[in-house]
Amino acid sequence: MTMKPEDPLRSGAPSRYEFPRPELLWLGVYLLFGWRRSFLRDCQTFLRTNPYPRRVEGVDHVPQAPPFVLVANHYARPGLRPYHSGMIVTGLIAQVRPALSHIRWVVTSEWFGRRLGPVPIPPSLYRWTFRRAAKVYRAVIMPRRAGEVAARAVVLRDILRSLQRECVGLMPEAGGSGTLRQPLEGSGLFVHSLVRRGVPVIPVGLWDDGDTLVVSFGPPLALVPAGEDRLEQDRSASEQMMAAVGRLLPERQWGVYREAIQRSLAGSGGI
Fold this sequence. Notes:
The chain is α/β, with parallel strands linked by helices. Helix content is 38%, strand content 15%.
C-alpha cells in the first residue's frame, strides 16, 4: 500500500520532516502550562504539512480495535527524529483504522550526553521537557536508569491498565539512529508478558527507500524465551522481538541483531 500525498516532493534523497512553526509555538505554550492536547490531531497535521512520499506495508496486521501494542525500531536520521516516526505511525494507522482514536506512546525519561554546540545540555532540562510532553499528550514516561526497578514496575502496571481501552506504542531501544541495538533491560520479558496475556504485539519497521519513507507492519509476535534465569530469558525474548522488527528492515539496519535475523529468516525459509 503506497500513500501518495498531494504534490509529493521527489528529490531522490530522504525528506526533512518539520512540525509547522505556528503549531510548534502553540505546543510550547501547552508544554509551559501543562495543558492537554490531542496527539492524533497533531499527527494528522504533521502528515498533512509534510507531503513527502510514504509507503505502508503489511497494514492488514494492525488489529481493527484495541488492545494491541506496537513495537517499532528507534529510527532517526537528519530530517527525521524518533518522535517524528511515532507521529507518522500514529497518523498513518488512523487513516486505515479510524476507530483507533489514540496510541499511547512510551517515552524515555531522559537523555544523556546531549550538547548544544560545545555546551552540554543538563539532563534535568530533558527530564522536565519529557514529563511535560507526557502530560500534554498522555504518553507514558519509562525510567531509563537501570536501578529504577520499582518505578518501572509502576509504569508497567499503568501500561497494562491502558491496554484495557487503548493501544500502546513502544520503541524499546530508547536510543540509536536506525541501526538496531539492544533494548532497555527488562523489555523482552515485559513484551513476553503481554503476549502471554493474549495481547497482539505488532512489530513495526521504519526505513528510507530513497526519498520514500517506508512503514512496515509484521504479524503478531510469538515469543518463546529460553534460559535458566530471568536475565537470560529477557535477552532471549528481546532478541526474538528485535529480530521480528529487523525482518521488516533492509539488511543495512540489522545492527547487533544481524545473526539473529539471519537465523530467523533461515528458519522460516526466508533465505
